[in-house]
Amino acid sequence: MPASSARAPHSRSAPSNAAANLLSIGQVLSLLQPEFSDVSPSKLRFLEERGLVSPARTPSGYRKFSEGDVERLRLVLAMQRDCYLPLNVIKQYLLDVDAGLNPPMPGAALTGAPSMLGGARRYSRDDLVREARASAALLNDAVSASLVTASETYGDDALAVLKALVELQKVGIEPRHLRGFRAAADREVGLIESALVPVARRNNVSSRAQVAERAAEISGQLEMVRTSLIRSALAKLAP
């Protein structure tokens, strides 16, 4: 994502001669939901409240989003989903980009994730198998083991998982050996849901967006604990 599309939020109104090139919140959702299925109007409003994006406003007060706004939102949502980053970290990263700096992608060192500045891709089943250098049978096994969700198109998460499975298969670890990972993930989701019950009970636009943000933060913290435990266990294997 170029720096020009990650501009610092500021208040602006929609010029009448540019209104035809701007998008309504419904149009923005239709662009983002194929990749981010949980994005909602309340989520977009919350991101605006937190200063992550600043859509233009019509004289009647309706939000209007530019192409740059949509790309900024796509980056924010990807950084939350892929790197489990809190919004204050994402906002600081965007502010640094806006200032003309070249900051490292937050979370990339921890997750090993590729830079998201180039934009997310979607893959057909055949494309996914080809990009991962996997077999169709391995993808089928991954779906059967609930490691990858069957879909008409797949994102970078599915590609990363399938690439990992290709490497694991080389050392004799098959998708069927990892069935417990889905159960473990479901248990983590249960922990997160329990922790967020007090916020979720408020049942308003702001609280729903806060639930989404806090869920991402807690998930990242659980990931750090799990990674630390694995590293400690592996250290004991060293001679």
Report the helical percentage: 55-70%
Q: In CATH terms, what is the architecture of the largest domain?
A: Orthogonal Bundle
Tell me about the biggest sheet?
Answer: 2 strands, antiparallel
Oligomeric assembly: single chain
How many runs of DSSP E, i.e. beta strands? Answer: 2
Distance between the termini: 45 Å
**Number of helical runs?**
11
CATH class of the largest domain, anyone? Mainly Alpha
Structural class: mainly alpha
Give the tally of structural domains. Answer: 3
What value does the average pLDDT take?
A: 81
What is the overall silhouette? globular
CATH topology of the largest domain: Multidrug-efflux Transporter Regulator, Chain: A, Domain 2
Estimated radius of gyration = 20 Å
Element-by-element helix/strand order: HHEEHHHHHHHHH
Strand order of the largest sheet: 1-2
Please explain how this structure is put together:
By secondary structure, this protein is mainly α. It folds into three domains: 3-111, Multidrug-efflux Transporter Regulator, Chain: A, Domain 2 (Orthogonal Bundle), CATH 1.10.1660.10; 125-178, no CATH class; 180-235, no CATH class. It has helices at 25-32, 41-49, 67-83, 87-98, 108-111, 125-132, 136-144, 156-170, 179-195, 197-200, 205-235; strands at residues 56-57, 63-64. Helix 2 packs across helix 11 (205-235) and helix 9 (179-195) packs across helix 11 (205-235). The termini are far apart.
